[in-house]
Write a structure and sequence with these properties.
Elements lengths: L1 H14 L12 H15 L1 E2 L5 E2 L3 E7 H7 L3 H18 L9 E7 L7 E6 L11 E3 L5 E3 L5 E4 L6 E2 L10 E6 L2 E6 L6 E3 L2 E3 L1 E3 L5 E4 L2 E6 L2
Parallel strand pairs: 3-4, 8-9
Antiparallel strand pairs: 1-2, 3-5, 6-7, 6-16, 8-10, 10-11, 11-14, 12-13, 12-15, 15-16
Helix pairs in contact: 1-2, 1-4, 2-4
Amino acid sequence: MVIKKVENKLERLVEGTFARFFSSAIKPVEISRRIVREIERNRSIGVHGENLAPNDFTVAISQSDYHNFANATESIRRELEETIRDYCYQEAYAFLGSVNVKLNADDHLRKGTLQIDAQFNQNEAGHPPGALVLPDGKRIALGDTTVTIGRLQDSTICIDDPSISRNQATIHLGESGYLLSDLGSTNGTLINGFRISEHWLVDHDQIVFGKYKIRFEAS
């Protein structure tokens, strides 16, 4: 179900804005199918018994195919990363680090062929994977820097809404992952519909500040 949904999205992308770039023998949906096969072939068991999926993928295609992708590489790369996140979320697979896809040209490959190298890689300094997905789809990767949220212009996430406090909340890296703390805001912070003061974030938590909604993804 998940892979079919993402394949349809990639097909719409190919048929729409970037259609003129894809005279290539390889289509993005074919890459997504191969990546899913690599996930299943390489998945492993973590030290705590969790199912781990590779998170770092290098996709090599022919020089000719890469040339046809050149003007849409970044869009395709983001869609492939979303494929991996959605698929692994549905299958309850975890990651050691953030999901990353690279598209490279290989002079030794024939047109219409590809190779995928799937690896398990941790983030720099061993930080756990984590990102905030904003309403416009923008992703803010988390690390050891405190994320500030509120109406103040210098907030990491500035929300122009009078129902939001100037200093609404923070997110920082702690011993058990990423901790969201409400800073005594007037109207509170909700996680999955419940008001909280502090909360250790887990994959796909829905964070709400007034009418502003953010999703946490552990990938």
